[in-house]
Structures are given as structure tokens and as C-alpha cells.
Amino acid sequence: MCQCPTPTCSLYHVRYHPEEEGRWALPHGEFGLDVIALIGAWRFTEHRSVPEMHQRLLARGLAISEREVTHLMQRYEELVTLRVTDRERIKARLQKQARVILAASRLAARCGA
Fold first, then answer.
1. What is the pTM of this model?
2. Which residues contact 37 (CB under 8 A, 6 or more apart)?
3. How many domains does the chain have?
4. Which of 21, 51, 69, 98 is the most buried (most CB within 10 A)?
């Protein structure tokens, strides 16, 4: 939330949301997408637990509860799911490529089969 600090301004004491707020935070969210992305990276790249992430955020000066860390981790998972299941985006991308190569990792190669 913002408000003009100049007493003579017509927006003095009128609170408003910054224009680009939707790009940086989810609606009704207390924390921005930067915090959600950080929690997602810690959880799924570094395999950190909720208490570990909570302590790291507190060390950065962020007033947050463990419950909120869990909530933000769930929001991260929801955002990733939305991204990977966006059929129109995937369809447009694959049409540009003209072909798809499907691969499965961690499967042992079967020689001579």
C-alpha cells in the first residue's frame, strides 16, 4: 500500500496499491513472489525442511511463522503446477518445434534386448 506523504497532494492520506503489485505478489498475499520463489528453491533444490526455511527467513529479518512458510511452499507448488499444465502454452511451444522427443531418465539401458 502506498500513500503520498505531501500534505498538499490530492492523494495525501489516500491509500492505493502500486500499479505493478500484481506482478510481484499474489492477491491477498502478505509476501511477494520473491519470497515464494526463494522458499521453492530451498525446498526443492536444497531439500530444506520448513523449520530450516523458517529460521533462514527470520535470519534475513522477515517476520514470518512456520505455518506461513508451509502455506507459501504450497503456493509455490500450485504456481508450478499451473505452469506445467498450461496446455495452450505447451501446445504453442511444441508447434514451433515441429517435433517432440520424449525421454525417461534414471532408467537402466538394456543392452542386447
1. 0.58
2. 76
3. 1
4. 69
* Residue 71, C-alpha cell as written in the block: 502455506
φ, ψ dihedrals at 2, nearest 5°:
-130, 160
Amino acid at 104: A
pLDDT one-digit tens code per residue, 8-47: 887 777 775 554 444 455 666 678 888 999 999 999 999 9
Q: What is the mean pLDDT of the chain?
A: 79
**77 in a domain, yes or no?**
yes
d(CA 28, CA 34): 15
Q: Has residue 1 been placed in a domain?
A: no
The answer to whether residue 16 sits within a structural domain is no
E strand or H helix at 37, and its extent? helix 33-44
Residue 61, domain member (yes or no): yes
Nearest-5° angle of CA 35, CA 1, CA 83?
40
